[in-house]
Write a structure and sequence with these properties.
Elements: H1 9-12, H2 21-44, H3 55-99, H4 107-132, H5 139-142, H6 147-155, H7 159-176, H8 182-207, H9 212-237, H10 241-263, H11 275-289
Helix pairs in contact: 2-9, 2-10, 3-4, 3-8, 3-9, 3-10, 3-11, 4-7, 4-11, 7-8, 9-10
Length: about 300
């Protein structure tokens, strides 16, 4: 996720970090060169390279802009829903840390159970990052697991769900031993259920992309529009047509590329959500709730990127 102050007018034209220009530069260059070739061919052989009225491009451009806006709104909704889910994860984790304070009254067994539950909650947050984002750092998960839990973790297909099951098992044993009442058990188990609901919501976003037909139709229309644009304005703009076509390509392909990044809010691109930093925040909060004082600093962006 890009974290930086709003750039001034001079910086606006030279910022590359967080921009999609690097991804779409090949398309822009192709459109520019093709447009220049069309202008040159029209001037050299006007009977072969024909031109036509550019008025229909106005209507097609409006339709394409509306469709791009619709797709980008849908992609942004996915991005914002992912952020809401992780905000809920932070809220539930902090609330769970406060709820487990009731275990302190159950003696040493209760205090150890509280440490184990919050340790597994920290592991769950880090495991969810690895589950959603390719290339996640699993060492951040393993450092919170007991040696007897590591083998179960490595063999599990859904590792965050395994950690929730371990948490539920700890609560069940504590209740069976008489360490907590039925009401206390239900309260704590409900919080574990909320953690599972956040995981399910994130999995729904990750496993349900936008319909492929939207992307296919948008790409075809954008390319055809940019390829045909010089034919409609070569008589009016002349050698200005390649520059206008390149600007239109930057707008259309840029919006499309930005939509691709927002469609996958848990990915590794700069505009993805900072779920790694959010998991680290949960870990710091829970370690502080356990009374630790030697805590790492809160996550900070590097080169304006927080992941």
């Amino acid at each position: 996720m890009i974290v930086r102050d709003r750039p001034n007018l001079f910086q606006l034209f030279f910022i590359l970090r967080g921009s999609v220009i690097r991804r779409i530069l090949p398309q822009i260059v192709v459109i520019f060169l093709l447009s220049a070739l069309i202008v040159w061919g029209h001037e050299e052989r006007p009977n072969v390279i024909l031109s036509f009225n550019g008025s229909p491009f106005s209507l097609l451009g409006i339709a394409l802009s509306i469709f791009l806006g619709f797709r980008n709104n849908a992609c942004y909704d996915r991005w914002w829903e992912g952020r809401r889910d992780w905000g809920q994860l932070i809220q539930v984790s902090r609330g769970f840390a406060r709820q487990t304070l009731i275990l302190e009254a159950a003696g040493e067994a209760g205090r150890q159970a509280r440490r184990d539950l919050l340790r597994l909650t920290m592991a769950f947050a880090q495991a969810l990052v690895c589950h959603l984002r390719p290339g996640g750092d699993e060492n951040k998960v393993l450092q919170h697991l007991a040696p007897s839990e590591v083998d179960f973790y490595h063999t599990a297909q859904n590792r965050p769900d395994l950690l929730l099951r371990l948490m539920s098992a700890d609560l069940a044993r504590l209740k069976a031993a008489g360490g907590i009442s039925d009401i206390q058990y239900q309260m704590l188990d409900a919080s574990i259920g909320q953690l599972g609901a956040v995981q399910a919501a994130c999995e729904r976003i990750r496993n349900t992309p936008l319909p492929f037909g939207y992307t296919l139709l948008l790409h075809r229309t954008a390319y055809l529009f940019c390829f045909l644009l010089p034919f409609g304005f070569v008589d009016t703009l002349g050698w200005g047509s390649p520059f206008v076509a390149a600007l239109v390509a930057y707008t259309f392909f840029g919006l499309d590329a930005l939509g691709d990044e927002l469609e996958d809010p848990f990915g590794n691109r700069p505009n993805a959500l900072a779920i790694g930093a959010l998991a680290d925040t949960i870990e710091i909060n829970l370690r502080e709730a356990l009374g630790e004082t030697d805590l790492p600093p809160m996550p900070q962006p590097r080169d304006f990127v927080l992941m």
